[in-house]
Amino acid sequence: MIQILSGVATHAVALLLYPGLAAILAFGGLVELVWMRLSVPEPGWPELSRRRPTPVAGTIAVGAILASVQLAAPYNLVPGEERSIVLAAVGLAFTVWAELALTVEFVAEPGLLLVIQMCWLLAVLGPAVQPESLRPQVLGNVLVPGLLPVKLACAFLYLLCLPALMRLWPLAPPTERRGRRRLDARRVLTWFPYCGLFTTLFFPPQGDDAPGLLRFFGLTVLVAAVVIVAGIVVQRRGAGVVRGTYTRVVTPFAGLVLATVVATSILMK
Amino acid sequence: MLEAGAAFVAWLGMSVVVLADGRRGLALGIVLVTAGLAVIVFQGAGPIAAGALGVGGAAAALRRLTHGPSGWRVMPPGSTPRVVLCVAAGILVLWISFSATTAGDSALRFAILTVLGLSVARVLSSDEPSTLLTAIALLALGIAATVGIGSLSHGLGAVTQSEWPYIAAALVAALAGWLPVRTANVA
Amino acid sequence: MWRESAEVVVFTAFALAFALTFAPAPTQRRSLMFRGGVGLAGTIAIAAVPTFELSLLALLVLGVLHAAVNGKQSFATRLRAPVLAVALLALALVFARAQGSDVLGRFAAVGLVAGLAAGIGLLPYLHPFDPEDPVSASPIAWFAFIGPVLAVVVVAGTHGVLGPDAGGAFGATLVGVGLVNVAWGGVAAWSTENTIAAWRYSFIADWGLALCGFGLTVADGRRAALLVIFSIVLCRLPLYVASRQALREKALTERPVNLVVAAALAGSAPFAGFAARVLLLRGATQMFWPLGLVLAVAMLLWLPGSLRLGRSLGLPRGRRALGVALVLALNVAVGLYPLPLLQAAGQ
Amino acid sequence: MPSAAVLGPVVIPLLAAAVIAAVGLARFDLGRTAGAGGAWGCVAALLALWLPVRSSVELILGQLGYGSALDLRIDGVTFAFGLMIAVPIAVLLTLQPRAWPQTALSLLALAAAMAAVEAGGVVLTAIAGGTVATLAVVMLETEDPRAPRPSWALLLAGWLGVAWVGVILQVVGGTAVYTAVPVAAITGPVFAVLAASAVIASCLFPWRTWLAVLWRRPSLRAAAVTIATVYPLGFYLLIRAYELGDGRYPHPLFNVGLAVLGIAAAFAAAARAQAAATRREFFGEVIPGFGGFALTAIAIGTPLGLVAGLILLATASALVACLALLPDRAGIASVVAVAAAVGLPPGLAFGARVVGVEATFEAGDFLGLIGVASAAAWATWMVAGARAIGLPGGRGRPASETFAGVAMLIATLTLVAGPALAVIQFGMANPVAAEVMQATAGTLTGGRVAVVTVSSVLPVVTLFVPLLLIGVAIYALTDISAIRTQARPAIFRIPAAASLERFRAAVRAASVPDQYRTILNLKQLEAAAAGGSPVFWLAALVALGFAVTR
């Protein structure tokens, strides 16, 4: 019983503090501010919403912290063998759709977004098909030449999907353009899990020491930067081009990635 | 030689039954068939069996003589198909009895096949109760005669030495003529 | 053989007792008692007489008497099928006993199957049918009263007389004729407009299964055929008798009892029909498994027709309700535990 | 424990049904008490038989007459499926008022379903399963003849197929008893018939089947009992098939085929759910969706997949009771039910689906791709669930059969029971794996605290408990008034649905052109056969003679 209680306490700390809620809010808040500053240069700081949070925020928070404790962040209190790529993927998948529960107007192009999410799921789970391992850090540590094409293809597909999943694309629904811009709680809660998961899946795991911590967060910030740049480029292309790109480029590319995964499994068998 | 003749008489009798519509013709047919069958059965099954068939047939003929359409009415107009039927059936049964099947009792087979075949043909092609009951009487006699065929020992093939089938058939033949049948059952 | 035919006679006796007990009007009861008694005596004769010729004579007498019973059809029309049956069986007897080439044995087998089909009233030798006929004057009497004993006597009688080659032809012909009747009866019971005609077709379909069971020359086939005969005589016939009143009043109802009756008529579990189907599939699998597949698919044909027949029962009350309950209970008992029935028949 | 006690779970509801019927015929209705007593008695008997010994108890009486002895057995599989069938029916019979014929029929269906899962052989399972199907149709048809119900032919076809497999095993292997059938008897074709029959019996198809359509009935009383009794039996057969094949299906292609069918069913249900016009329509697709995920997990062929599938089925059986009691109006009960149905973390459905997806990755070869497809189907369910929260309720149902509080309690329990996933696996699912996959069941370790997979550990207690507490705390702070109930467009149109519906309409409307004259008039053919025409009869005789001389 003592062992269980200590386990519960450990996981509670991981969920609430690090790499959980506190780390999410800190990292997410900073990156969101950078994004808002770069994407629409308006004077003053964005205001915080004073109303009670909706179940949407609750659902996104639960999903985000569940995903974040699966990351290979140094000093993560959750042991390595307890982390699972499936928990991370499903946790983040919930965050995309929570707003649809409130009203349809909050989600633009839900059909296209669902397809993009499926492409993202392929990018996250594809690398696990051949190694048959579910630990994110093990997948990140895979350097077998035969598996590198899948890893690279999935990494690129992952990055392609992020701007849409993080709602950085210009297809945002009309309700978001009223009055002074507010801090997007959904995005704040998902910056760290999405970027941290990329770092965990596609880079070797870092040691539980200061340099490891710096390297992990350095890489995660780098991923966030790449996503922000991609977001800005996508914003400038306009809704039509973006919709066409995701429909005629990203989706076929996902098919290619799927073919790569299958071919790799056949060749490595 | 006697059996062959008897078989021919049986065929002749069945032909008369098929061709005649009057009660006299039918009665004559019954007499001829009974005679033919009785002679052949006498050779194989003995006097009691032959006697039973004879009594049954005679009773049926007597009953038929007094009931049914009057007169002979042998080969009424339009009975050409029946003639063809009698001749063709005779030839077919002849071939079956004497070449397709072997062993001794070919005359009995000829008589039985003739009686069974032509009596069911008569039932299928007539609506007159007297004709139908006549055919039924002869069918019963024919069935009894099948007891004498073959030599297998059990099941359908069981050949019993008892004369019960002949007696039962005689009863059926005798009583068939007395069945009260309304011409049209339609209410 | 005689234990099986004796058991079938007991089935018919029970069916007659049911009809007499639960027949709605006293006037019907007297005529039913007389005709049923004669019929029962005839079936006992067919089963009990020592030789096959005497059975044929008994069948001939029954055929003539049944044709003479007043009904919608003429005497001549109703006489044809029974007489043809007797004649064909007698001809088969001649061919079976005669010496000669193997073809004779096969023709004997054809004669037996055709005679059996004509005797029961199955395709290709259907008995003439008029929905207005009383039960005792209609072909139902052949299906469910005389036919069962005739079938058992004829099939049991073939053992030892038809050689392996002819025996195989006999079985195959039975299965072929059975499947034709299954298909025809199953589809017609569903598509025909007249509900009484639908009952008749359902008897034909059941008999198709019985012939298939007899045609499977394995023990399970015979057991299946016996159970199908049981469900004809002690399920379909009593329920048909019980539904006559509602059929006249054209009362269709959809109560639990109607659907349970539909299930019993459709051969659904847990009724005797399902146990028969299990044994039939078992026998077919032993002989030729594709036949099992054909039979399994064919068994689905019962459902649509049975739903309609179940509804045609109306809402039985009082004595009729008790009768229907007894029939269903008996069929559930036999459906779950058919062993005593099969052992009594020496299976 | 005397082996005759095995009859308890079957006889108790049977006796209760008999008493209710007898008293009902005497014009007196015992009401819910007797029905609930019979059902809870069945549950109690099952628990009393299994929990003390947790090993097989078997009763073998004499031969029945179709090659099978009366062989009833309670083992891990029976216990798991017995609970899945009996508990929801007990809850429904306790709460929902019914006329005594419906109560008696429900108890008979429960008794037959218990007999089906207690049967020691395939043939007995077929007979009992066929009885369940019969009673289900009778129940539905008499409750409301005009309302949709399953096709009787479809249900009977499934159970006839099972009966056929049983007799094939009797003929080929000498017995159809699960524990005695020689592995060599389970050939590919035999298993194909068994699997097809199981799929038909539970209607595990991608297109909309009676499972979804039953939820549109005006009253859901008979529908819920039907789904609770008929639906698990197909899965029961697929799990017993492992026992017949000594822990494996005859060929890996069967595993892949059934898993893909499961994914197709789950994804198609999700696609229909996201296009639902009302919340009732959405809930109608929940059980088929669970069935699809459960079939995928079970078909993977590993003990981990099997236990995941069982827990999904257990969750689905709880949701059958929940959805049957849920009123057609907005409110917290409905939102919680949607959350439980979609598998919101850290619920039981969430945990079981995660384990199911993980099992596919660790099953080897390409099965990981099925895991990716599972995740995609689950994502579609998330979309459908989020959209359903704001949908209008539905056509409304009799208030006497709905209990919002109890429905919410059941839904909440499935959400709160996430941390108990390992306990449920240990207590209910592992014995099943030990029974049917004896060789590989040893890999299921982790005790009551965690679910151990090949490459990872799912710490259900230590991770889900704090996550649950955090979630409750967050949701306690939230305000659900922001949810706007509105008619919502479908996220995407199912391309095949419209063409499938057009094809069906075309087939129904197909008719022979007027000028067509058949040369084969069946009516005339029959008239010739019945009219005693000598020519026809002679021709038939000649045809038969010709046939036998070939």
Radius of gyration of chain A: 19 Å
**What would you call the shape of chain A?**
globular
Number of domains of chain A: 1
* Number of H/I helices of chain A: 10
**Domain tally of chain B:** 1
Low-confidence stretches of chain A: 174-179
Write the layout of secondary structure elements.
The complex is a heterotetramer of chains A (269), B (187), C (347) and D (550).
Chain A: H1 2-16, H2 21-39, H3 55-68, H4 85-97, H5 110-125, H6 136-140, H7 148-165, H8 185-202, H9 210-237, H10 239-268
Chain B: H1 2-19, H2 23-45, H3 47-66, H4 80-100, E1 101-102, H5 106-125, H6 129-145, H7 164-176
Helix pairs in contact in B: 1-2, 1-4, 1-5, 2-3, 2-5, 2-6, 3-6, 3-7, 4-5, 5-6, 6-7
Chain C: H1 2-22, H2 26-48, H3 52-68, H4 75-97, E1 99-100, H5 102-120, H6 140-157, H7 164-191, H8 195-215, H9 219-249, H10 256-266, H11 272-287, H12 289-298, H13 302-312, H14 318-336, H15 339-344
Helix pairs in contact in C: 1-2, 1-6, 1-9, 2-3, 2-6, 3-4, 4-5, 5-6, 5-7, 6-8, 6-9, 7-8, 7-13, 8-9, 8-13, 9-11, 9-14, 10-13, 11-12, 11-14
Describe this structure in words.
The complex is a heterotetramer of chains A (269), B (187), C (347) and D (550). By secondary structure, chain A is mainly α. Chain A is built from 10 helices and no strands. Chain A has one domain. In chain A, 65% of the residues lie in helices and 0% in strands. Chain B has 187 residues and is mostly helical. Chain B is globular. Chain C has one domain. Helices cover 79% and strands 1% of the residues of chain C. The radius of gyration of chain C is 19 Å and the shape is globular. The N and C termini of chain C lie close together (10 Å). The relative contact order of chain C is 0.12. The model of chain C has no long low-confidence stretch (mean pLDDT 88). The interface between A and D is large, with 68 and 62 residues. Strand 1 of chain B pairs antiparallel with strand 1 of chain C.
Give a concise summary:
The complex is a heterotetramer of chains A (269), B (187), C (347) and D (550). With 347 residues, chain C is an all-alpha fold. In chain C, 79% of the residues lie in helices and 1% in strands.
Main traits of this protein?
heterotetramer; D: about 550 residues; mainly alpha; two-stranded antiparallel sheet; 4 strands; about 5% strand
